Request: fold
Amino acid sequence: MSYDLVIKGGEVVSSSGSFKADVAIVHEKIAAVGLELEGRHTVDAAGKLVLPGALDVHTHFQLPFCGTVSADDFFTGSRAAAMGGVTTFIDFAIQSRPASVMQTIEARKAEADPRVCVDYSLHAGITDWNEDRVAEMPDIFAAGIPTFKMFMIYKSEGWQSTDADIYCAVREADRYGGMVGLHAENDDLINLFQAEAEQEGRRGMYVHALTRPPVTETEAISRAIQIAEAAGGALYIFHMSTGRAADILKEARARGVDVQAETCPQYLLLDDQLFKRPDGPHFGTCPPIRKPWDQQRLWERLEDGTVEVVSTDTCTFNSQQKKMWQGDYRKTPFGMPGIETMLPLTYTKGVVEGRLDLGQMVAILSENPARVFGMWPRKGTISPGSDADIVIFDPRLEVTISHRHLATNCDYSPFEGMVCKGWPTTTMVRGRIVVENRQFVGEAGYGRFIERHPVRSPRA
Amino acid sequence: MSYDLVIKGGEVVSSSGSFKADVAIVHEKIAAVGLELEGRHTVDAAGKLVLPGALDVHTHFQLPFCGTVSADDFFTGSRAAAMGGVTTFIDFAIQSRPASVMQTIEARKAEADPRVCVDYSLHAGITDWNEDRVAEMPDIFAAGIPTFKMFMIYKSEGWQSTDADIYCAVREADRYGGMVGLHAENDDLINLFQAEAEQEGRRGMYVHALTRPPVTETEAISRAIQIAEAAGGALYIFHMSTGRAADILKEARARGVDVQAETCPQYLLLDDQLFKRPDGPHFGTCPPIRKPWDQQRLWERLEDGTVEVVSTDTCTFNSQQKKMWQGDYRKTPFGMPGIETMLPLTYTKGVVEGRLDLGQMVAILSENPARVFGMWPRKGTISPGSDADIVIFDPRLEVTISHRHLATNCDYSPFEGMVCKGWPTTTMVRGRIVVENRQFVGEAGYGRFIERHPVRSPRA
Amino acid sequence: MSYDLVIKGGEVVSSSGSFKADVAIVHEKIAAVGLELEGRHTVDAAGKLVLPGALDVHTHFQLPFCGTVSADDFFTGSRAAAMGGVTTFIDFAIQSRPASVMQTIEARKAEADPRVCVDYSLHAGITDWNEDRVAEMPDIFAAGIPTFKMFMIYKSEGWQSTDADIYCAVREADRYGGMVGLHAENDDLINLFQAEAEQEGRRGMYVHALTRPPVTETEAISRAIQIAEAAGGALYIFHMSTGRAADILKEARARGVDVQAETCPQYLLLDDQLFKRPDGPHFGTCPPIRKPWDQQRLWERLEDGTVEVVSTDTCTFNSQQKKMWQGDYRKTPFGMPGIETMLPLTYTKGVVEGRLDLGQMVAILSENPARVFGMWPRKGTISPGSDADIVIFDPRLEVTISHRHLATNCDYSPFEGMVCKGWPTTTMVRGRIVVENRQFVGEAGYGRFIERHPVRSPRA
Amino acid sequence: MSYDLVIKGGEVVSSSGSFKADVAIVHEKIAAVGLELEGRHTVDAAGKLVLPGALDVHTHFQLPFCGTVSADDFFTGSRAAAMGGVTTFIDFAIQSRPASVMQTIEARKAEADPRVCVDYSLHAGITDWNEDRVAEMPDIFAAGIPTFKMFMIYKSEGWQSTDADIYCAVREADRYGGMVGLHAENDDLINLFQAEAEQEGRRGMYVHALTRPPVTETEAISRAIQIAEAAGGALYIFHMSTGRAADILKEARARGVDVQAETCPQYLLLDDQLFKRPDGPHFGTCPPIRKPWDQQRLWERLEDGTVEVVSTDTCTFNSQQKKMWQGDYRKTPFGMPGIETMLPLTYTKGVVEGRLDLGQMVAILSENPARVFGMWPRKGTISPGSDADIVIFDPRLEVTISHRHLATNCDYSPFEGMVCKGWPTTTMVRGRIVVENRQFVGEAGYGRFIERHPVRSPRA
Reply:
């Protein structure tokens, strides 16, 4: 058989381990993994790792938020993805009432489709759980979206869901084999701490951390777990930030609750003392970055399989936008770039520093997210028949992170100055090379919306 | 020395164990525990147990609720207490806005003082946490009330507290060495389940259990524990009903959270199949009675010291009042009599049936509640200098529970027909015999309000 | 490229999951996994599973034991392996003093090499830990044997090792990246129970179970774990049979001890009531088969990853040999056939009955044993460059187990009558088909001794 | 009633708490605990604590060991006990074959009776478990000795018991309601480590700690627990020294094993760096003193009730005797004085420093040992009818420990220089004052052998 393209001589990695092999591609698919394969075109991967493209299941490109719009749009964002070895991302279609979820999805796809350079999907963000949502749920699944996002905070933005809403949504989603993901923080307590800070006139950036102490996350996660357990459906926790929450998750999974969680590089690598720097607002996210012992515990829970996914929660605001904070932490646009550095940072801090092995990294960045979110085995693995989403990663490249060399539309990186021992050099999406030798060669509109399948057996 | 009264020849019990001794009383106090003591009067206790009077830290006498008033007023209620070996109870002064807590306490004392036959105290029920409550807190402590009650449900009654209210109250109470107790149920979920039942036209009494599944309690307790842990103060859980909650409590205490809890005989002995009987509404309480496996687990947690207190949540509604339910479980006046049967039931089902030893029973019914609620060592122990609150308990009396022989103002008992292997025959409050040979010989107004001391070291 | 052979159209399975693909072979190796591969020869696998050959890391072929020799020699045993989808086994070279371990290995290889039909390796069985063993250890590793077997029992056979021996061996093996495996039973207690039974004149087959109660295993495993933990090396537990031991293992692994374990189909599927049957001796093994609740717990620990390997402990004694017991359980030759039924039974009772998924089965039978015992990625996976050890498994074949259709040299099967929902039809070892359409087409002497690499990083 | 003696005005302490009361004594017994009691004699305890005399359940007075005899004989040892507030001790009658246990008990009583100044009992030390031991067991119980001591080490001394011996002894003792206590160390591993040290020529005192690493204790305790669990009887662990063992104990008790343990002040307060001092041999005991983190964990397990007893393992060797070590740690007579300092050290390091409350201290030093060893309520409590074994303890006395002021026959104290915030001033045994104002006023031969009752219900 004659192959379109063969990636030759690399070390192919899966969660089981790695072996030296060529990878052959025909059109958009992986056609073979083997020895001495030949094709019309060849990419040399000798001395390099050949990884399934990473998935970032948590991005917010061109998101209107805090009176501005996140700085990475679907083009610059997905270009950054490609540059960082991410071949599929999942963004959000967050319902803005009175629009229905389906209308929001369509609108969001219309924004994304002409701009995306890699493949993508959407989570359906529900902000007003009611009979209309129940009614359109079959349509949402039919549209290839089996996962939902709800917020336990953001009451003033009109996004907050009640405990009862979450219970109902988990139960309803379970009928179709879906899963509800949550932004889990306790609104009531955060408001209290913010009001107290206000009374005392404290508004500095570090107050962001002080007014969202661990309990504001751990309580909400603990509550969500119990609600989902009672509702009998699957739960996903977005951007888990504290070590204690990871312990709660471990206990819940051990007793059989169907709950999964992600954490993000910022929670694994940064700590809240950064808020005290002049550029503190650059590090502002919700939930906030935490303490070194939280990092430590999160790594442990990644290593033991409790936390199955690393994502980025990319929501880029550049330094100009961050200035909106004007000395008041509450006005900070919360979010940061990250999709581009997820893979090299996880490799360096995880694999090179001995916290994970290569197979675990591929599980966490590719296999698990694909499986958890209904894209397996189309995405997340280098197997015949899968989409040819492949990253060639050079473990000998040493790269010091700087916004100057990054493709994201941002004039800083929260990981500025960190030294990565390895970097992706080539990225391929459905058989097409979109990054070559660290140069972007893709094009807006090449990426496709991926229809996902249910993540559990429908109850029916 | 010449004693006023000596109880002779009984087996005196403390949490450490028991020994044969006489107990001598001078005026209101225990003067001595010893051998061959002599006094001007003598009570023969040969062959009997001599116990410190039990404390019931959870009663609702003459409580206006559901458009009626609980049927046991302070007289009949405290008479029933005396008959059942309870020498001190703690009722509630639940603030009815716009009255202050202090005003409510005064009003409640005015109702109680002329009627009580045994000693009593009050928990301060707070229903609108705000600056006024902060301001009057020193006065409440000065009035001898170091414990508070807040409700996580009863929004429509205007009683509900938010997470932030609870956080603030726990923190504020801790300044003075106080403790916040909670009615812990998840309002939002209960409303959901009730609304769903309503949609389906289900209103029978068993629906009460179905609309308050375990998660409605366990989630609220779990949340409260985390809030109190973060606030850094002491927490008390009223009427814990589920086995899972008891496990959550055990885990929290093991990791160092300052939380204590009570359960009640109805949760230890009854199960929710009773709701299906014609007299189902008689068994209606909040939270509802549960499953046999919950009973089992609660006994285990009493035995291992996780649950430190048994109380009754006595809130008597007679069968006439219970008729208000008219086929709709939501209209049932929730509550039942119980103070009179707590001690003999705990003895029979706990000690005789081998779940507890005698010392554990005295700990659970007398020593622990006195200590937990700031009355130790004045109450709860047969020690020199303590109030002479003493029960002579005959372990050879076999009594089948029937409302006909009970002193409570109620025409049924939820424990009707249960056979008790032992019953209190004599009850003494501050040196005065108020029950003699199972006859009430006390009088309204003899009981006194007991000023309690802080339950923790004040922070200041 | 032209392939020697292509397995076409099957569902290729790895621990990550499965996908439809062809598998191409060149000479002894897998050359490619891909779509529409073509070769000079073709094997049709449409509708079938294509599995990496199973490994059985625990066999005793032609073992002199109890005055006889196990009935499956290296030929019939490895033929049965092939028929059952096992492409590599690990037998034992158990040192018989005064022979050295190296001499024993050489002798054992000489027995095996001309007879084996599939690939094999040996564990080095050490029965007299001393300076000579320390001295020859480098040679043993150089010979491709990084794993050792020691016995905590069999004192009279001269095989028993002391706690100190085990400590030293674990520590010494760790220097070279090796691992000590144990037969873990408490000799002293077994002797006691046997002596007591003897005093009472009880010798029936069920007494075998009674004289080896769970504590005789769990104590020994617990002790071994603590010794290995202190010695700082890796430990392997052979033929773990009790649920309690699996719990001990789970706890030990959670606190970081480097310990792994296997269980066997007889412990997962049989219970000790079988000893009461007339053919009870057929089921006699050491340790004995256990209770249904042990089975249940072992399955749970397989499912959660605590137990990583299933092996068979095949040590065939036919019914004639079993007659040696003559009414005295102690004279029973302990052992049974099993290598041939391991894969179909694990598939049926594990995958079909929902206890494991397909990927977990492949992990337990192929990937894990290859990795744990130093043969990864040469064995245990269908990846380019790996040995072409492949099983085509037909999930639609329903086979009722009977010794009549089995290749093992035994006139009964302990699993007689069990219905398997699926059976291997074709087995390939290093590219050569040795079983075709359930017919053995291999030949004695084709199998090779596989030199294994260290299982941990040498300490150097 | 006229009392012989009244202790007036002190704070009487039990495990439940404390209260101000007088304690009246008639002849040997406590006659009353009360207010304003009057007697022919009076002891003023104003401002002092009135404690039940402590029990030390682990002493070795005038023990032949290591070719010498422990320096405190029954007179000087029991005098030290009295001075330190210990009113009852339990020593050992360790069978020296071929003598029977009963013969040993009689011989040991003959040594003790004329010399003891406080009450005492004996554990029956069994060194050759066999049918003779089974036969004499009823006699041992009849002699008032329900507890046994066996050794897992000391093979060369002829004291070692096998696993089977322990199993049988636990089972047999259980028939009569008895309990087996163990010196739990792994002989085989200790011998290994000692032999290795010898090979390397290391014999310094610190080598004692190095050759008995934690595993030598934790493995043995873990093994003993499993054996006792299987045998179905009660187990006691003497002189537990490691934090890990305390965790093992906690886990075992939580799953229902009937096991209890003691630790000693040397394990709570000293660490193994002391071995490096010139007087290192003074600190030599078996097991050895450990690390600061072991101390920490042992205190935690005392606080949470896992470890119920503190004893001393007093086995005094003076500095002259310690010289026997002559530079070889193995020749050190292992043991140290301690009975005299147990109470003030536990008070100071436990109560004053906030690790225990007063009630817990009384539980650990008096109530629990009396209960655990079959002397409750005769010993261990200030209750009417109990023996008048009472200590008046002055919490305002500050005493710096020095052998110069101690009554023990030893020229050093392992706790030399520690400052105690409180010290016993008066000790009373069965109504007779034996220490008055820190002066010994007792007499040899006053103490009595206490016949103990079974510690569990006999199985019969």
Residues 53-372 of chain A form a domain with the TIM Barrel fold (CATH 3.20.20.140). Chain A has a mean pLDDT of 97. Chain A touches chain B at residues 162-164, 167-168, 186, 188-189, 191-192, 213-215, 218-219, 222-223, 226-227, 229-230 (CB under 8 Å).
